[in-house]
Write a structure and sequence with these properties.
This protein is mainly α and 139 residues long. Helix 3 runs antiparallel to helix 4. It has helices at residues 4-25, 27-36, 42-62, 66-84, 92-118, 125-134. The chain has one domain.
Length: 139
């Protein structure tokens, strides 16, 4: 399929953009949850992580410096898995839900790591930039 990578980048990154906006638009609720998990300076961290995942998500979505954007997502996802979804430290009723979120975050981090290696692929701003620098210059 000609546009599979473009669609994949969009589907992969859309939740990050939306969740990042949610961090900022529902700051009190999100930072309150972070504080309940022991995150220091929870409001500041919630703002920073919201901006981080918006930037990473848009970067991957547009294919603009997608390797850097994917690293931003990895930097968010791995600590989030261990800090926010520590299924081994919660009551049994919540453990299954937290375990699902923990492994979802790790799986997404794995996908982001693939982007850090392979880049944004076709139909991306990175590809357009590479093609424009390879094109012969005519005077």
């Amino acid at each position: 399929m000609k546009y599979a990578v473009l669609i994949g980048r969009f589907l992969f990154s859309l939740p990050f953009v939306l969740f990042g906006l949610n961090h900022l638009m529902k700051l009190d609720a999100m930072s309150g949850y972070a504080a309940s998990k022991g995150v220091p300076a929870a409001t500041f961290v919630t703002i920073v992580t919201g901006l981080l995942i918006i930037a990473g998500g848009l970067s991957v979505m547009l294919g603009y410096k997608a390797r850097i954007g994917a690293w931003l997502l990895v930097v968010f996802l791995v600590p989030t898995a261990f800090i926010m979804h520590n299924f081994w430290g919660v009551e049994e009723a919540m453990a299954q839900n937290e375990m699902a979120h923990f492994f979802k975050d790790l799986a997404l981090a794995g996908g982001a790591l693939l982007i850090t290696h392979f880049g944004s692929g076709p139909h991306s701003l990175d590809q357009r930039r590479a093609e424009s620098t390879e094109a012969p210059q005519t005077a």
